[in-house]
Predict the structure.
Amino acid sequence: MAGQEKEEFGCRVKTLLPKLLPAYAQLLRELAAAGADWVQIDEPILAADAPQAYLDAFAGVYQELANTGVRIIIGTYFASVAEHLELLKSLPVHGVHIDCVRAPEQLAVFAGGWPDNKVLSVGLIDGRNVWRANLNKVIDTPQTRSRKNSPTTCGSPPAARSCTARRIWRLKKNSTPKSNRGWPLPRRNWLNWAPSNAPWKTAKTA
């Protein structure tokens, strides 16, 4: 069944892509006319078991989008895309974003082989839980890599931008995380507990 689904997906790429691509190109030209400089195009399928027909279409698609007046950065996330390093290097884009929260091992692959004239954007903060980030580690990681490798431009946007960060405020002054131990452990680890000094107010009803 999986093989059949991949084959059908490949057929859809061949039939639908020529219809969609002009619309994307026109949109990018309009963004450029409105003053946009950079545009990120997410390609999450690169972190999945991508059908070969999809991978084969990348070169033609981005060649078509390359002359629209904007600089394009490809966004990937949730898994490693190191196996597609050569494909990404060959595309006429200005950069790529990789998720180094869920796949930190790919940083060494990209930092060692990414072209100096293209941006390497490194996701080091979990977009699902930005408050639990180890900022010292976040700051040190790209600096360590840049000392060991050629001076590739690095950034640190959230690894998963579309995910809302969870933050729970304890509305009890001077309370501690111990008071929240009733939460199931997995959920408690997803959250950041912070005390609030907001005074308690009793609502009065008529």
Q: What stands out?
A: Residues 146-154, 158-175, 196-206 have pLDDT under 50 and may be disordered. The radius of gyration is 22 Å. The beta strands are 38-42, 71-75, 95-99, 119-123, 154-155, 168-170, 193-195.
